[in-house]
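thread: overnight batch results

M.L. [08:02]
morning all. the overnight job finished for the chain we discussed friday. pasting input first so we're all looking at the same thing
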Amino acid sequence: MQPEYANKTYQLGLVEALRECRRQLGLDPMTGSLHQVINWGRSAVTEDMTFRDVSVPAFVLSYLEKIRKSQRRDGGSASEGKPGPTEYRVPPRPDDQRAQWPRSVSLESACLSCGSDQVVRAHPLFIGGLCSTCEQAVTDTMFALAEDNISPYCVVCCQPGQLLICDEAACSRGYCYVCLRLLIGHDAPESLTSLAVWRCPMCHVTRDVTGLLRRRPDWKQQVAALFTPRTRPTPPPPADQFRDRRPIRVLSLFDGIATGMHVLTQLGVAVEVYLASETDPDAVHVAEMNHPRVTQIGPVEELTDSKICELAPVDLVLAGSPCTDLSVVNPARRGLYGQCKLVFTVL
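M.L. [08:03]
and the structure it wrote out:
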């Protein structure tokens, strides 16, 4: 078992696929342990094998249907003792003013998430505005994903609750029943849940206007603008600030595309030697093209004490270890057990 295949869910899926292979070959489905089935697959399955029937088995389709229904979170019916589509799991926010909107409301002058008239910017995804409170909420939840890779927050109002999930494979967005009722129609949760396949307003744009929920044509640019820091440009340093200082020697760990060299150059700092530790070939190529004076010294793990002594003296050390395994937007993050453990190598 390869380390990257040690995930239990992956093993179970692999075993089911191998058992289906045995059925296609006319063999018994093999009810032994996981490792027995996997060992059989290693020795028996080859790239040139052909199967009579390549259709998806019925039991797999039934599993997929159960998963689809659970991801759409339609919640069953009230007769089964479960909350049905007409019952809110989370009631509308007490400050939600959208129910009082007049028919002639101008969406761009009102917050699409809560109905406030204190608009500070446009909603990045839909025609409508955002107040400062909802702007922060949209920023915090835009790329938040649960363990099932589905957002637990409504894409419109950023509130948790009973969500209708888009059936588009590449979409992870959900829409709460409160927003569906207020912005599409009072019976929207029931009518949309009854559809065999539902694609949300972000994925399926038709000529028919879907109530008040309309995708913004420039939504990609608006999302980028939402996450662009609103800072004033840094004034250039005085030309003579570093005039009388000697050139410095720099060691940059996890260097990337030599951003450190770029910043030092912009600040007017004279650099005698810039030593870079980077393993990504594309990043190294960009650094070499933009900053020919950068010297690559190999991976951080290979920087032994003796090698560091050879590189000395060093005036400035730059380091920022990979953070993908700590980021909340990475559903497969492994914390400090992933690439982030390299920070301890630096320390």
